[in-house]
């Protein structure tokens, strides 16, 4: 049921983005606003919920560590893997859960451009989440390649 609600919300979000885009371009033609400005605003603002969805997908790894499909779809849709929500970054969550979920979520995020050197609210880099965790050797190897010292 949760999966159905999630995909329903994703579909509604995409339809809303399309509607706003079309309406914004129509309004830009009759005003002094540049269509380029309207286009940028309408394409950037909807990405905020998409970024939050990446964090939620990473949090879902805690309950269902073997399901990586949602994260894969969100990243393929252009979600920013470096956007955090509530002081959490998707890569940090993936690292913390890599003992259960394996290295694939971390690899997906790193391949999508996640920065392991981003600073958390505590001032530590995201890769520091692997310290003291049950991170797999593959995850630690990926991080050592992605976050050179």
Structure explained in plain terms:
There is one protein chain. This protein has 149 residues and is mainly alpha-helical. It has a single domain, classed as Serine Threonine Protein Phosphatase 5, Tetratricopeptide repeat (Alpha Horseshoe), CATH 1.25.40. The protein is built from eight helices and no strands. Helix 1 runs antiparallel to helix 2, helix 3 packs parallel to helix 5 and helix 5 runs antiparallel to helix 7. The longest helix is centred in the first third of the chain and has 28 residues. The chain starts with a helix and ends with a helix.
Over the alpha carbons, how many angstroms does the gyration radius reach?
A: 18 Å
State the helicity in percent bands: 55-70%
CATH 4th-level superfamily: Ankyrin repeat-containing domain
**Which class do the helix and strand fractions yield?**
mainly alpha
**Overall number of domains:** 1
Tell the overall outline. elongated
Provide a count of the helices: 8
What's the overall average pLDDT, rounded?
74
| CATH class descriptor | Mainly Alpha
H/E topology pattern? HHHHHHHH
The CATH topology: Serine Threonine Protein Phosphatase 5, Tetratricopeptide repeat
DSSP strand count: 0
First CA to last CA: what distance?
44 Å
Main sheet record: none
> CATH architecture, please?
Alpha Horseshoe
Q: Regions with pLDDT < 50 over 5+ consecutive residues?
A: none
Itemize the secondary structure elements and their pairings.
Elements: H1 2-29, H2 35-44, H3 47-60, H4 69-76, H5 90-96, H6 98-101, H7 104-111, H8 137-146
Helix pairs in contact: 1-2, 3-4, 3-5, 5-7
């Amino acid at each position: 049921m949760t999966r159905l609600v999630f995909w329903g919300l994703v579909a509604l979000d995409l339809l809303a983005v399309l509607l706003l885009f079309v309406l914004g371009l129509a309004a830009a033609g009759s005003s002094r606003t540049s269509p380029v400005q309207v286009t940028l605003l309408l394409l950037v603002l909807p990405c905020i919920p998409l970024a939050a969805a990446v964090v939620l997908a990473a949090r879902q790894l805690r309950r269902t560590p073997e399901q990586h499909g949602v994260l894969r779809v969100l990243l393929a849709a252009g979600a920013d893997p470096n956007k955090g929500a509530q002081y959490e970054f998707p890569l940090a969550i993936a690292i913390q859960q890599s003992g259960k979920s394996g290295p694939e979520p971390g690899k997906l995020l790193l391949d999508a451009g996640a920065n392991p050197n981003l600073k958390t609210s505590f001032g530590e880099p995201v890769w520091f989440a692997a310290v003291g965790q049950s991170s797999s050797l593959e995850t630690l190897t990926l991080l050592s390649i992605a976050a050179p010292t």
